[in-house]
Design goal:
By secondary structure, the chain is of the alpha/beta class. The protein has a single domain, classed as Aldolase class I (TIM Barrel). About 50% of the residues lie in helices and about 15% in strands. Strands 1-2-3-4-5-6-7-8 form an eight-stranded parallel beta barrel, surrounded by six helices. Helix 1 packs parallel to helix 3 (about 40-50), helix 6 (about 115-125) packs parallel to helix 8 (about 145-155) and helix 8 packs parallel to helix 9. The model has no long low-confidence stretch (mean pLDDT about 95).
Length: about 220
């Protein structure tokens, strides 16, 4: 499974990228607005992120009409070569996806909450399809079950679309999404950093260091 970071915070992206396991970044208007300031507009922030990350960077439109979405898509892809445009899974978003995919613009279909929507997104030609697991859990609907169904209906056919598990709230969300075969998982920075943590790793490392220091003392080093 490819790991994407769901953030617009450049410091978080740079740190995660230094680990050597980051495959891409997803942003949205909310995330970008949180980081706005210091004289940078959203285009500059996206340009900086795209320069840092050797992989897809998703940037979302705010229009809800087909023509507006297409115009925004043209604007966004001029920022950098690795921009993927996020369209919401609504009729206008499907139509915009079909139109821009014919031009070679890559699309991340967002706000997907059902396998029916995932199937429509795949038929429209979306490169990434983003079911929102955590938000489904918030309304007492099994996010993992919906993800499994989305994976199944898309993989049943010869679509090139990849399933991007979104709204991952913790390490177990990431693990379960990987077990189900999600192509990609996107997560906040705090979830990403928790993936590497385990108390037995910390205990084992500390013990190795203590034993090594004792051995050096015994040898008079």
């Amino acid at each position: 499974m490819k790991f994407f970071l769901d953030t617009a915070n450049f410091d978080e992206i740079k740190e995660a990228n230094s680990w050597g396991v980051l495959d891409g970044v997803t942003t949205n208007p909310t995330l970008l607005s949180k980081e706005a300031g210091q004289g940078k507009d959203y285009k500059q922030m996206l340009k900086d992120i795209c320069a840092e990350v050797d992989g897809p960077v998703s940037a979302e439109v705010v229009s809800t009409e087909k023509d507006g979405m297409i115009a925004e898509a043209h604007d966004l892809v001029n920022i950098a070569d690795n921009i993927y445009v996020k369209f919401p899974c609504i009729p206008a978003g499907l139509a915009a996806t079909k139109a821009v995919r014919a031009e070679g613009i890559r699309v991340n279909m967002t706000l997907v909450f059902s396998p029916a929507q995932a199937l429509l997104a795949a038929k429209a030609g979306a490169n990434f399809i983003s079911p929102f697991l955590g938000r489904l859990d918030d309304v007492a609907t099994g996010g993992m079950e919906i993800l499994e169904q989305c994976i199944e209906v898309v993989k049943n056919y010869d679509f090139d679309s990849e399933i991007l598990a979104s709204s991952l709230r913790g390490p177990m969300h990431v693990v379960e999404a990987a077990r189900l075969g999600s192509d990609i998982g996107t997560m906040p920075y705090d979830v990403f950093t928790k993936l590497v943590k385990h108390p037995l790793t910390d205990i084992g490392l500390q013990r190795f260091i203590e034993d090594w220091n004792k051995a050096k003392e015994a040898l008079g080093a």
